[in-house]
Design goal:
The chain is of the alpha+beta class and 107 residues long. It has one domain (3-105): YaeB-like fold (2-Layer Sandwich). The chain has 3 helices and 4 strands, in the order E-H-H-E-E-E-H. The longest helix has 20 residues, at 27-46.
C-alpha cells in the first residue's frame, strides 16, 4: 500500500475548505468533505495510478494526476513516486478558477 503525504499548502487549503463548508453550508457538508477525502485516500493507497493525468499539467516532466472532489467542483492534484511508493498530494484546486492559475501554482 502506498503512503500518502499531504504537502503543507494542500493540507491548509483542505482545512480552509472544510471550515468554510461548515460555516456556509452546515456541518453535513463539512462531514461530506471529510468522507470524500477518506474515500479518495483509500483508493490512492491501494491504486495510486487509478486516477487520470491532469491535462492542464501534461507538458511537465513529472506526471501529475487528479481526482475530483465534491461533485467535480474541486480537484486534488497529486503525483505518485513509485520508488518510495508514496502519493504526494500537492494542491486542491477549485475548478471554477482560471486554469492558468493551476499551472502557476504547481511548480
Amino acid at each position: 500500500m502506498a503512503k500518502i503525504k499531504w504537502h503543507y499548502k494542500a493540507k491548509l487549503l483542505f482545512r480552509d475548505y472544510v471550515e468554510n463548508a461548515n460555516i456556509e453550508f452546515g456541518k453535513s457538508t463539512g462531514r461530506r468533505w471529510l468522507k470524500e477525502r477518506l474515500d479518495i485516500e483509500w483508493r490512492l493507497e491501494r491504486y495510486p495510478v487509478s486516477y487520470p493525468p491532469e491535462e492542464l499539467l501534461q507538458d511537465r516532466d513529472i506526471l501529475y494526476r487528479r481526482c475530483h472532489l465534491m461533485n467535480r467542483r474541486f480537484k486534488i492534484i497529486y503525483l505518485y513516486d513509485e520508488t518510495e511508493d508514496t502519493v504526494h498530494i500537492m494542491d486542491i484546486w477549485d475548478t471554477k478558477s482560471n486554469p492558468k492559475a493551476l499551472v502557476r501554482r504547481i511548480r
